[in-house]
Structures are given as C-alpha cells and as structure tokens.
Amino acid sequence: MSQAEFQPLNIAVLTVSDTRDLDSDRSGQTLAERIKASGHRLAERLVVPDCRYRIRAELSRWIADEAVQAVITTGGTGVTGRDITPEAVRPLLDLEVEGFGEMFRWLSLQEIRTSTVQSRALGGIANATLIFVLPGSTGACRTAWDGILKDQLDARHKPCNFVTLMPRMRE
Predict the structure, then answer these.
(1) Residue 125 is inside which H or E element, if any?
(2) What is the pTM of this model?
(3) What is the set of domains in the chain, with CATH numbers?
C-alpha cells in the first residue's frame, strides 16, 4: 500500500460580522494562520456584514471558482436575529455533511459544556467545493480546525478524508 502525499488546497476564509474588519478579525486570522501552517494556501480572506445576500455573493463566487477547493466561514451561527449564516449558506449546498456539525458540537461540549447547543455549525459541498460554517469565536475556530479540519483536509489522514474524495464529488 502506497503512502498518500499531502495535497495543498486553496482555502478561502469568510468572516461574517457587522463589527469586525480584517485588522480586528481574530477568528479569520486564526484560521488563516492554521491554514498556512498546515501547508495549504489561503486563496482569499474577506469580511462581510451579516447580510445573507453578501454572504451568498462571495460564497457563490468561490464555489464557481475551480481554483478554490474549500471555504471556511466564521460568524453568524448563533441564535440571535442577526445570526443568518447557516440560512445564507444552506440553499447553495448540493449536499450537507451533517457529521461535521455533530462532531463540532461534540468537541465543543468538552470546552464550553452545554453552551454548544447554541452553535449551528455545519458542513457541506457545493460544486465540489467543501464549505464549513463555524461560529465567530476564536476558540471555536481553533476547535474546528485542530479537531476536525486539519485531518479531514489532509490526504494522509486515514481511514478517510475529504481530499481523497474530491475527485469523485462531481459524479
């Protein structure tokens, strides 16, 4: 059996916030740093307001861009009136990966206990682009990257990972 080789991905980061910009966006910065430290490429990093149409516009652009293999959003996954990221993203998905949100909440339970029920993190695929929707806290971004995404976006992770499945996502 041959050893799989690391395949760097082009990953875009979208922060959803009415109050942050690129300079004050610690969550997006945390993701960007982890993406690069893991050997991937940061395709682009943006901050947009809590507006479903702005979220969809940027996400749709990346989904249509064959050079972008994954998108991670941070922010807007709570339960307040302005938290609309899951509703903005879901209509764009071809397939929802329910296990991502379940695993994120399970990992978060160990850190923030029952407060994790307020997270509506989700994962999915659109046009063979991996989409992950994370809460806006820096801790949540660390939890998702370190506990799930780092391995699932690495072709060497066994027994399975998203990278080795990417060629088949257009079937």
Answers:
(1) strand 122-126
(2) 0.94
(3) 10-166 (3.40.980.10)
